[in-house]
Design a protein that fits this description.
Strand content: 5-15%
Number of helices: 4
Structural class: mainly alpha
Number of strands: 2
Largest sheet: 2 strands, antiparallel
Low-confidence stretches: none
Length: 197
């Protein structure tokens, strides 16, 4: 039911609301998206790795002296090219035979499992929502029947009041009719509360 009690929603609308608003169903949809991402990741080749190694001379830094260029004074900077040796290396992991194929197959199976889990969860969710909608519909129909019966019993009570005044019926028959009206009032209150819940 919507926010207004008098404005019921259809079965189709209630099922759509359950799909949109159920946090567990949304989480299952995210699991499916994650499984699709895992399949894509499994199909990727490994990225190359760039290594940079710097070897600094052990005997101290050379400083450039314009007067005596061959003078080896300790000190200087590791950033000068003559004081270090750079080594750049690009490496790439090579998967063991069949490893990539098996990881793709595993990711695809996980995706299929996620799809089955989502379908099963959706089926169970919609089953529960549909049953609850049918319960509410049945309660509203029961409320309508009790409301009509209450109207008829109220009219019968008014008629019996007139008949009692005219001494056509006895006091016991009037009380019996009054008990029926009170019973319908109680049933109507219970059914209305159940419908609102």
């Amino acid at each position: 039911l919507s926010q207004e009690i008098n404005k019921p929603i259809t079965l189709k609308e209630s099922l759509e609301l359950a799909r949109k608003n159920n946090p567990f169903y949304i989480a299952e949809q995210y699991n499916l998206a994650i499984a699709k991402g895992d399949v894509t990741t499994a199909k990727l080749l490994p990225n190359p790795i760039l290594n940079n190694q710097v070897i600094v001379k052990q005997d101290g830094f050379n400083t450039f002296n314009p007067i005596d260029p061959f003078n080896k004074n300790p000190g200087g900077s590791a950033w000068l090219a003559r004081n270090r040796q750079d080594w750049l290396q690009i490496t790439m992991k090579i998967p063991v035979a069949g490893q990539r194929k098996y990881s793709i197959e595993l990711a695809v199976k996980k995706l299929q499992l996620s799809q089955q889990n989502l379908a099963e969860f959706e089926r169970n969710l919609l089953y529960i929502v549909a049953n609850k909608w049918i319960d509410v519909w049945f309660t509203s129909e029961k409320l309508n029947i009790i409301k009509r019966s209450k109207q008829y019993s109220d009219e019968l009570l008014k008629i019996n009041e007139i008949r009692l005044r005219n001494q056509v019926i006895t006091q016991a028959e009037f009380l019996r009719t009054q008990n029926v009206v009170e019973q319908y009032d109680a049933n109507f209150a219970l059914a209305e509360q159940a419908y609102k819940n």
